[in-house]
Design a protein that fits this description.
The structure is a single chain. About 80% of the residues lie in helices and about 0% in strands. The protein folds into two domains: about 375 residues, Sodium/glucose cotransporter, CATH 1.20.1730; about 80 residues. It is globular and about 105 Å long. The termini are far apart. By secondary structure, it is mainly α.
């Protein structure tokens, strides 16, 4: 990937505009509440910007094109599932979450299942989000390495600095504003890619020679069950994601939160279309390239040099903003639910400092982990992320809707056992059931046992109370008769 001086300048300018817009908008933020929730006064477009900034990342763009390079049209299910998941979040959970007045999803669990459930949920959810960060870091490292002609380790270090700058000085308000700017830029560039790739594909006389198998142009080419699994995993993962919930918590009211989420869904769902089209064209004419570079190489090769430079800058920022938004969610959960209680941080400036320090640690950790997984499939990490976040799905849904018929002692085992089974299914066991469903079944089993045990326990306690009340009545009556 050889870039001209003009393309490099435009790429850097695009990155500067997107990052600078977020930093400038949040210069006056001095409190932890303002940093993490923008004072709960976020407008609908800014809610949409914060969510789109995190969702339109490595998986939605480069990850989708990487998968489409080998599977065709069925790669669209990631962005389709993303939009469906956001709609589900808006319809079912926007009201109870926004009206709860909380800052993290762990606090919702604490209210129903006790203080001990909070750190457990934070660790499980943070681990899942960490793997989602990896899905944007991997293509970002390869892209920077190819464009700058630098070793992957140096590209990773540059990426870490960019991520820290983006989120450290921005917070929720900066993330929202820069998310809006980034979405506008990348949408404009993707429209250009749509028309360009469509013209290129239509110029190929016999597509069947390049795509002989029927699955290439079949939306369910990877199997209907697999497509439904992907959609369900995204619904579960989005519902349990601190990143999206945090944008929802920051909205000024329920209506604003819902409109913002619907707007984010509307701009996120179509993003996969140009990515798939460009990747399929690259498969036809350049089958020798690294699939993870299909989209950026298409931009450099077939777009006008000016548009190519802007597109590359927008793609890099889509990766950086996605990682930053996800890392921001992790840092908020850990600082609020673990670090503050353990270190007894009570002052606002202490919590804000802990949040920012954690952003640096998390960013460095995900870059280091990425060095050991440089050649892995991007979307694999996204779906593993959703599986782990799904470990808290059932207890969280029960807590949100106020279904409290399960004793608090069963909530933690339900989350831990679900996580353990999902990891075993992903890394060790050779079974055909997806990890998300394995964890879901394990969690459901524990929940059913917990509800049954709780009912029996409550019934036993009520019987004991009734007997004690009867005994007390008899004693009092005997005492009265003796008098």
């Amino acid at each position: 990937m050889e870039l001209t001086g003009l393309q490099i300048a435009l790429m850097l300018l695009t990155m500067l505009v997107i990052t600078g817009s977020g930093i400038l908008s949040s210069l006056k933020v001095k409190t932890s509440a303002g940093f993490s929730l923008n004072g709960r006064s976020t407008s609908a477009p800014m809610v949409a910007g914060a969510i789109a900034g995190a969702s339109i990342g490595g998986g939605s763009t480069i990850g989708t094109s990487q998968l489409a390079f080998t599977t065709g049209l069925s790669a669209l299910w990631f962005t389709l599932g993303l939009g469906i998941g956001l709609i589900f979040l808006a319809v079912c959970f926007a009201r109870p979450l926004r009206e709860s007045g909380y800052e993290t999803i762990s606090q919702v669990l604490i209210k129903s299942y006790g203080r001990q459930s909070g750190p457990v949920a934070s660790i499980i959810a943070s681990t899942g989000i960490f793997f989602s960060c990896l899905a944007s870091v991997l293509p970002a490292i390869w892209l920077l390495s190819a464009m700058l002609d630098t070793p992957v380790y140096l590209s990773g270090f540059i990426l870490m600095i960019l991520i820290i700058i983006y989120i450290y000085y921005g917070g929720m308000k900066g993330t929202a504003v820069s998310g809006i700017v980034k979405t506008l830029v990348i949408w404009s560039m993707l429209l250009v890619i749509t028309f360009t790739s469509l013209n290129r594909l239509s110029s190929i006389e016999d597509l069947n020679l390049y795509f002989p198998e029927s699955f290439w142009f079949d939306l369910t080419g990877c199997g209907t069950a697999h497509c439904l699994e992907n959609v369900f995993s995204l619904i579960v993962g989005i519902t349990c994601s601190q990143t999206y919930a945090q944008a929802l918590f920051s909205a000024k009211d329920v209506r604003t939160a819902r409109i913002g989420i619907f707007m984010a869904a509307a701009v996120s769902m179509p993003v996969g279309i140009p990515c798939v089209m460009a990747a399929m064209y690259m498969h036809a004419v350049h089958p020798e390239i690294n699939p993870i570079l299909a989209l950026p190489v298409f931009a450099i090769t077939y777009l006008h040099p000016v548009l190519a430079g802007i597109t590359l800058g927008a793609l890099i920022m889509s990766l950086i903003s996605s990682v930053s938004g996800l890392a921001f969610g992790i840092s908020t959960m850990i600082s609020r639910d673990i670090v503050a209680p353990v270190l007894k941080l009570e002052r606002d400036d202490q919590i804000l400092k802990a949040n920012k320090i954690l952003i640096i640690i998390i960013s460095a950790s995900v870059i280091m982990f990425a060095f050991y997984q440089l050649h892995s499939q991007v979307l694999m990490w996204n779906f593993l992320s959703m599986s782990l976040r799904g470990s808290i799905f059932i207890p969280l849904c029960m807590a949100i809707v106020g279904f409290r018929k399960m004793s608090a002692v069963w909530a933690i085992p339900a989350m831990l056992i679900s996580t353990l089974f999902a990891l075993i299914a992903q890394t060790v066991a050779d079974i055909q059931i997806p990890p998300l469903f394995v964890g879901f079944i394990a969690s459901s089993t524990v929940v059913v046992i917990g509800i049954t045990a709780s009912r029996r326990f409550n019934h036993t306690v009520l019987k004991l109370i009734a007997k004690l009340h009867f005994l007390r009545t008899r004693i009092m009556s005997l005492f009265a008769a003796g008098k």
